[in-house]
């Protein structure tokens, strides 16, 4: 065999070995089942909303846990504003909640809002703090009280009635998504989100909506966890199973939209009309699914978590082809 032929043979063998190694790695990752991956986009942004209905935190990298995204001490919707009787308070009742920005550092959750001094709440609360039985959409879930200073701060900012801030701890029992929406699986669980650990929207879907609106809206109106670029409008609705980074997720149902979408993220003023009315003109469910969505328009898609891991901005989004 000539030198050139030998070099070609070695090169081909190396390429074949690499292909076999990749194939073996994929087969190992999928538990021995060989499945084809089709790239459908990439991650444009990641968001966590530590306090339900308050401002979001954009991160470059996050861990996806069984209960949603986590970045350091920040966890998605692990804090909740409640009335003194334990019932949840969201932007539906108090639109100005969206004006509260949230961050963390040195073991503290930090809240800031217009004309308010920054509030610092310990991430790890004293075991002496009261545990409340909270009520979210008719279901019970616990939350440890964040203290009188936090309660006074929230109450002072909203100026309507006394409120308290509570924190979900990992030792507490999460809510079952299936109890809230029957299409979820018994393994899908949440702390304070409405019903799902993950919600995904594509940039193209937002762009499509904005072509129909006189006053444009931003992604902050819809509060997704993952914003995807590089796909067509509403393509996310068709993703049955996807993988991103080291994470696998199961597409479950559309996100039924409510008055929360009509709150201006910059002013905290609820319009009560747009973009909700426009969405109702072209994003209502099929009549066969009205038992699930009723009259709510759909925008964004809920996902359950099949495999936990890490996601970062720029990661390819793959649809799993069985």
UniProtKB/TrEMBL annotation:
Residues 158-320 form the MOSC domain. GO terms for molecular function: molybdenum ion binding; molybdopterin cofactor binding; nitrate reductase activity; nitrite reductase activity; pyridoxal phosphate binding. GO terms for biological process: cellular detoxification of nitrogen compound; nitrate metabolic process; nitric oxide biosynthetic process. Keywords: Membrane, Transmembrane, Transmembrane helix. InterPro entries: MoCF_Sase_C, MOCOS_middle, Pyrv_Knase-like_insert_dom_sf. One of its GO terms (cellular component) is mitochondrial inner membrane. The keyword Phosphoprotein does not apply. The chain crosses the membrane at residues 6-28. Coiled coil: none annotated. This is Mitochondrial amidoxime reducing component 2. The gene is MTARC2.
